[in-house]
Amino acid sequence: MRLSLTWVLAFVASFRGSLCVYWDENNTAATYNATALVAQGLLDYYTGLQYGKPVGMFSDPYYWWEAGGAWGSILDYWWYTGNTTYNGILKQALLAQTGDNNDYVPLNQSVTEGNDDQAFWGLVVMAAAERNFENPAENEPQWLYLAQAVFNTMALRWDDDTCGGGLRWQIFTWNSGYDYKNTVSNGALFHIAARLARYTGNTSYVDWAEKVFEWMKGIHLLEEDGTNLVFDGAKVEGNCSNITKLVWTYNQGLLMSGCAYLWNMTQDEKWHVRTWEFLNASSIFFNDSILYEVTCQGANSCNTDQRSFKAYFSRFLGLTAQLVPQARDKIMSWIHASAKGAAQSCSGGTDGHTCGQNWFYNGWDGYYGLGEQMAALEIMQNTFCLDRPAPYTAQDGGTSQGNGAAGTETQATNLSPLTITTGSRAAAGIITAVIGLSIVACTVWLVI
Ligand SMILES: *[C@@H]1O[C@H](CO)[C@@H](O)[C@H](O)[C@H]1NC(C)=O
Ligand SMILES: *[C@@H]1O[C@H](CO)[C@@H](O)[C@H](O)[C@H]1NC(C)=O
Ligand SMILES: *[C@@H]1O[C@H](CO)[C@@H](O)[C@H](O)[C@H]1NC(C)=O
Ligand SMILES: *[C@@H]1O[C@H](CO)[C@@H](O)[C@H](O)[C@H]1NC(C)=O
Ligand SMILES: *[C@@H]1O[C@H](CO)[C@@H](O)[C@H](O)[C@H]1NC(C)=O
Ligand SMILES: *[C@@H]1O[C@H](CO)[C@@H](O)[C@H](O)[C@H]1NC(C)=O
Ligand SMILES: *[C@@H]1O[C@H](CO)[C@@H](O)[C@H](O)[C@H]1NC(C)=O
Ligand SMILES: *[C@@H]1O[C@H](CO)[C@@H](O)[C@H](O)[C@H]1NC(C)=O
Ligand SMILES: *[C@@H]1O[C@H](CO)[C@@H](O)[C@H](O)[C@H]1NC(C)=O
Ligand SMILES: *[C@@H]1O[C@H](CO)[C@@H](O)[C@H](O)[C@H]1NC(C)=O
């Protein structure tokens, strides 16, 4: 008797406290409301506003790189919905983590940082330039400058000594993964080069993009003539001949949308064909038009990082739709079906808008985290991607100032693992407690 009374009280409490995600693709106001709730759920993982916690970082176990990814989702949230609620903390976060050299290799991260980690912060500042996000003060580094500094410092690590070129995964020899040339590092270099090319009009970046693409193709990380799938990487041992044939949404998306930028800028047909090849091959990531992480999701083995990959892919789908008009119908049908699935998965947690991992599961599947929240937010807000302008360039709308030599003026070369402490992984704390009760509450709410 006492137990059931407790349950009734808990039910009532969670019912009153829950705000549910209600998705109706034909009701714009409702989709904005739903997106706002999911965005709020994402920021629940942000600890940078708490006393003594580093600005820009999310709670444990989310690594620094994923924070860069999450801020990219928040930037898009502003851009696609016009909601400025988080712009202040976004700007503060982006400027807090630049590091002394303004290239997103901050001391706190530098000993463990990989090329891909740096690149994900490069992506968000690139987008800030392209969306003409409020420029930093004159005495602060500018968005374009930061993106160029990320590109330049990455490009300087290009390694011709093994495998005929390519970036290694890790920056430093002492980190495991230094012997691996991975696609996300190289794909991100390609992708950022493509975006800098289109933004600045400087064709040196096109040359770089071409060089990275040809190298990746050369060692068969990109199966350009067959499946058009993008594989994970290759160990340097054996001259990169042993390809790790895992596929991930974010790698496919980095290549696809990089090609879309290059097509949009150069109008060279080969980039158009390649955009389509990667786009068509992406069907492997869809189940009845609903996006999923094919390599790990079915087996429920996606790790913390992998659970955010669909967020970037969703973002890259939207960019591709903006830049390649012919691809819009195909992309938007995927985005709409996936957003609907994602939104209905966002019915978990005590808040009633915690998102799940599996978007074709009926309701919330019990998974939760920053990755799940970001992925749902990105696919939902990208349903608006054709209502907003395509990425600006310096010629048309972009005002951010840069410098072709950014990041190379004062290269920090004296980093030593002995003099730097690995620093903060933000303190633990599960933000969104998980009880099934509020799902029931939400269902009742929706029925009412
Ligand atoms: C939205 O409108 C389209 C076209 O009128 C229709 O096919 C679709 O079923 C509608 N969706 C919902 C959820 O009502
Ligand atoms: C959206 O939310 C606002 C308040 O935040 C509310 O007034 C409005 O009715 C909601 N619209 C829909 C369609 O749910
Ligand atoms: C803006 O976003 C915040 C956070 O997601 C939300 O609470 C607020 O209701 C949104 N405002 C409007 C007008 O949608
Ligand atoms: C290693 O691979 C690169 C790229 O495929 C190739 O150019 C080079 O000749 C290879 N080196 C050796 C020693 O096989
Ligand atoms: C290729 O890599 C896989 C995974 O690392 C390993 O199991 C396999 O033995 C390697 N094959 C060769 C020929 O080196
Ligand atoms: C992509 O698929 C469409 C059919 O859905 C086909 O018409 C087109 O030729 C394909 N493009 C490429 C480059 O494979
Ligand atoms: C695709 O989704 C359906 C449910 O809509 C599910 O039964 C099926 O197992 C899914 N397929 C894969 C490959 O996950
Ligand atoms: C480039 O993108 C713009 C903005 O969406 C679009 O209007 C234009 O047609 C695109 N150019 C090409 C060559 O596809
Ligand atoms: C063009 O980009 C290259 C590569 O980053 C750079 O070295 C060069 O200074 C840039 N040129 C101009 C005019 O900005
Ligand atoms: C670096 O780590 C220290 C120690 O955890 C922390 O106090 C500081 O805020 C961090 N700085 C940044 C910029 O994250």
UniProtKB/TrEMBL annotation:
<keyword id="KW-0336">GPI-anchor</keyword>
<keyword id="KW-0326">Glycosidase</keyword>
<keyword id="KW-0961">Cell wall biogenesis/degradation</keyword>
<keyword id="KW-0449">Lipoprotein</keyword>
<keyword id="KW-0378">Hydrolase</keyword>
<keyword id="KW-0812">Transmembrane</keyword>
<feature type="signal peptide">
    <location>
        <begin position="1"/>
        <end position="20"/>
    </location>
</feature>
<protein>
    <recommendedName>
        <fullName>Mannan endo-1,6-alpha-mannosidase</fullName>
        <ecNumber>3.2.1.101</ecNumber>
    </recommendedName>
</protein>
<dbReference type="GO" id="GO:0008496">
    <property type="term" value="F:mannan endo-1,6-alpha-mannosidase activity"/>
</dbReference>
<keyword id="KW-0325">Glycoprotein</keyword>
<dbReference type="InterPro" id="IPR005198">
    <property type="entry name" value="Glyco_hydro_76"/>
</dbReference>
<comment type="function">
    <text>Required for normal synthesis of the cell wall.</text>
</comment>
<dbReference type="GO" id="GO:0071555">
    <property type="term" value="P:cell wall organization"/>
</dbReference>
<comment type="similarity">
    <text>Belongs to the glycosyl hydrolase 76 family.</text>
</comment>
<feature type="transmembrane region" description="Helical">
    <location>
        <begin position="426"/>
        <end position="447"/>
    </location>
</feature>
<dbReference type="GO" id="GO:0005886">
    <property type="term" value="C:plasma membrane"/>
</dbReference>
<dbReference type="GO" id="GO:0007117">
    <property type="term" value="P:budding cell bud growth"/>
</dbReference>
<dbReference type="GO" id="GO:0009272">
    <property type="term" value="P:fungal-type cell wall biogenesis"/>
</dbReference>
<keyword id="KW-0732">Signal</keyword>
<keyword id="KW-0472">Membrane</keyword>
<dbReference type="GO" id="GO:0016052">
    <property type="term" value="P:carbohydrate catabolic process"/>
</dbReference>
<dbReference type="Pfam" id="PF03663">
    <property type="entry name" value="Glyco_hydro_76"/>
</dbReference>
<keyword id="KW-1133">Transmembrane helix</keyword>
<dbReference type="InterPro" id="IPR008928">
    <property type="entry name" value="6-hairpin_glycosidase_sf"/>
</dbReference>
<dbReference type="InterPro" id="IPR014480">
    <property type="entry name" value="Mannan-1_6-alpha_mannosidase"/>
</dbReference>
<dbReference type="GO" id="GO:0098552">
    <property type="term" value="C:side of membrane"/>
</dbReference>
